Amino acid sequence: MTAMPTAIPLPVSDDRLAILAADVHRTYFAKYPPLPVRWGQQISRKRRRTIRLGSYNHLTTEIRIHPLLNSPTIPAYFIQSIIHHEYLHHVLGAPHNRRFRAHERRFIHYRESQEWIRRNLFLLLGRKKEELQPRRGVVARPPAEPVQAALF
Ligand SMILES: [Zn+2]
């Protein structure tokens, strides 16, 4: 009789999000109380023109991350870049002004995150790569039909 190897349970995705959020809080926003960070509700639409990757509710102070990012194929730094962006709304307010953008660039993986979404937005939108012509930043548009990633 051989002993069955004990399966080590993988952390559930809520734990992964909590760990990533705690790291962002500790590194960049330690002087503020931590905010609740949760996955948003799944929407069944497969092919989209836009995707809102994160949101911050100033009434509840809750950060929500799009559930499409709840996948092992999404790099941790990209999810953290969204959490960081939404924390900045808590600290700096709603507008994406110069001050906001300057703070955003302090995230250590800012450039990699921009590059990752430039290359992978089509996957999140359920598109073929040829449909998109990436531009600068997180916004990409094909000639006819506007498609974009939006951070709120
Ligand atoms: Zn925003």
What would you say this structure looks like, in words?
With 152 residues, this protein is α/β, with parallel strands linked by helices. It has a single domain (13-151), classed as Zincin-like (2-Layer Sandwich), CATH 3.30.2010.10. The protein has helices at 13-28, 76-92, 98-104, 110-124, and strands spanning 37-39, 50-57, 62-65, 148-151. It has a four-stranded mixed β-sheet with strand order 1-3-2-4. Helix 1 (13-28) packs across helix 2 (76-92) and helix 2 runs antiparallel to helix 3. The protein is globular, with a radius of gyration of 17 Å. The model is unreliable at 140-146 (pLDDT under 50). Zinc ion binds next to helix 2.
Layout of SSEs?
Layout: H1 13-28, E1 37-39, E2 50-57, E3 62-65, H2 76-92, H3 98-104, H4 110-124, E4 148-151
Parallel strand pairs: 1-3, 2-4
Antiparallel strand pairs: 2-3
Helix pairs in contact: 1-2, 2-3
Residues 85, 89, 96, 151-152 line the site of zinc ion.
List keywords for this structure.
alpha/beta, 36% helix, 4 strands, Zincin-like, 4 helices, binds zinc ion, 152 residues, four-stranded mixed β-sheet
Which strand-content bin applies to the residues?
Answer: 5-15%
The figure for the number of domains is 1
Output mean pLDDT.
Answer: 83
Give the helix level as a range of percent.
Answer: 25-40%
Low-confidence stretches: 140-146
Order of helices and strands: HEEEHHHE
- Identify the CATH homologous superfamily: Metalloproteases ("zincins"), catalytic domain
Main sheet properties: 4 strands, mixed
How far is the N terminus from the C terminus?
Answer: 57 Å
Radius of gyration, CA atoms, in whole angstroms: 17 Å
Q: In CATH, what is the class? A: Alpha Beta
**Which CATH-level-2 architecture?**
2-Layer Sandwich
Structural class: alpha/beta
| Ligand list | zinc ion
Count of helical stretches: 4
CATH topology: Zincin-like
Which shape, going by the Cα principal axes? globular
